[in-house]
Amino acid sequence: MSSRSTFYRRYGKRILDIVLSGFALFVLSPLLLIVALLVRIWLGGPVVFRQQRAGKHKHAFTISKFRTMTNACDANGNLLSDSERLTSFGKLLRATSLDELPELWNILKGDMSLVGPRPLLLRYNAYYSERESRRFEMLPGLTGWAQINGRNTLAWDDRLELDVYYVENCSLALDLKILVLTVFKVLRRENVHVNTDLVETYLDEERQHRGSQTLERVAIPRG
User: DSSP letter string over the chain?
Assistant: First the structure.
């Protein structure tokens, strides 16, 4: 790794995150207020959805997003499925990526970066291979290499491999390329799944299957 790349990873990337996220929060503050008001009117409170995700070195942090679903429950008081709670307004927020804007606060605080592997649910932590775990060497990102190369339409293994590629090749030029292409992807609404029920189910099943295979391999006596 070149000295320039090492410097960018250690110092330049964080400086870029602070400058751009701070500027974005200032410029987009009217939009943030409007979206927050609409979420409150159409979906009720709380306006911001918070959830634990795996950050750098798999350390948990709380990610913030605009809420996109209602709190509708069945007769037993259990929350309905995502597809049943996701309204047309929520779908619009996801399709335009407006629900992701509160993550700018996560970036400013240092929990996330503008560019990096997307932060995933903590329950997946046990199922990554050794190579896939390299994605946790860097802060998770608002956008990333996988997001501009297929996003949620990618197979799980392909998505993680792209994350590792980014970790191995991170540079200022690559980050700027990803940021520019992300803008075009968002404007064109490419590769967006507004209903993640099937995606999450697939990821859970595939990760658990891999986890069981890993345990089986470990359990086989050597020699």
Answer: --HHHHHIIIIIHHHHHHHHHHHHHHHTHHHHHHHHHHHHHHH-S-SEEEEEEE-GGG-EEEEEEE--B---B-TTSPBPPHHHHB-HHHHHHHHTTGGGTTHHHHHHHTS-EEESSPP-BGGGGGG--TTGGGGGGS--EEE-TTGGGTGGGS-HHHHHHHHHHHHHH--HHHHHHHHHHHHHHHHHTTT--S--HHHHHHHHHHHHHHHHHHHHHHHSPP-
Phi and psi (nearest 5°) for 195? Answer: -110, 110
Question: Helices H, strands E: what count in the chain?
Answer: 9, 4
**Distance, CA of 161 to chain centre:** 15
Q: Give the phi and the psi of residue 96 in degrees, each rounded to 5.
A: -95, 0
Question: Residues 6 or more apart from 116 whose CB is under 8 A from it?
Answer: 138, 139, 140, 141, 144, 166
Q: Tokens for 94, please give them.
A: 């996801």
User: Residue 199 contacts by C-beta under 8 Å, 6 or more apart in sequence?
Assistant: 152, 193
DSSP state of 73: B
Express each pLDDT in 45-90 by its tens digit: 899 999 999 999 999 999 999 999 988 887 887 888 877 888 899 9
pLDDT in tens, 80-118: 887 788 889 999 999 899 999 999 999 999 999 999 999
Cis peptide before 46 (omega within 30 of 0): yes
